[in-house]
Amino acid sequence: MTKAQVLHILDQLPDEFEPEELIERLLFVEHLEQRLRQADEREGVSFEEARARFMPQQPVQNAA
């Protein structure tokens, strides 16, 4: 993360804010950048693999 990115995030916050809000935003941006780097380097999982992990096949219901 660069100083410019931190300043941009600070500029988006209201004049008064809780420190936790800044920390949450910084962590979110860092996490997002990490995931984008992984995607660029093809280290992430494919859409099909993510679907299989998080949306298991539901049994087909017969209409009777």
Would you kindly provide a written description of the structure presented here, covering whatever features stand out?
The protein contains 3 helices and no strands. The protein is mainly α and 64 residues long. The longest helix has 22 residues, at 19-40.
Can you lay out the helices and strands and say which pair or pack?
Elements: H1 3-12, H2 19-40, H3 47-54
Q: Helix coverage percent of residues?
A: 55-70%
- State the end-to-end distance: 58 Å
Structural class: mainly alpha
Secondary structure: number of strands: 0
| Strand residue percentage | under 5%
Describe, in short, the structure shown.
The protein is an all-alpha fold. The chain has 3 helices and no strands.
Give me some keywords for this one.
single chain; about 60 residues; mainly alpha; about 60% helix
